[in-house]
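Give me the fold.
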Amino acid sequence: MNDLKCNGPKWIQIRRDILKFFHYTCQKCKISFIEKEVFVPYRKRPLEIHHIEPKYYGGLDLVLNFTVLCIKCHKIETRKINQIQQKQKRLHRKIDKNQEKLR
């Protein structure tokens, strides 16, 4: 399966297919929407396509790496990932400082 870019006309169809596959339902809290509620202008969308393995950790834009989350759950998951990234950055800085001291 080829790596996809999450934009453009091809992405619009793939997004539709993913939302339909998951029955327009958030996979975390299970809130559901009807089709006409989902395909609205970007800022009003109730559901987001979410990378299961974040791109930051090497996750790809592959259909198998996507799930569907509502806006609320997507924000929660994104916040968790951001917190983990910040902890990792602090740990790497600490390791780098300790390595410098050993030189």
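Residues 8-102 form a domain with the DNA Binding (I), subunit A fold (CATH 1.10.30).
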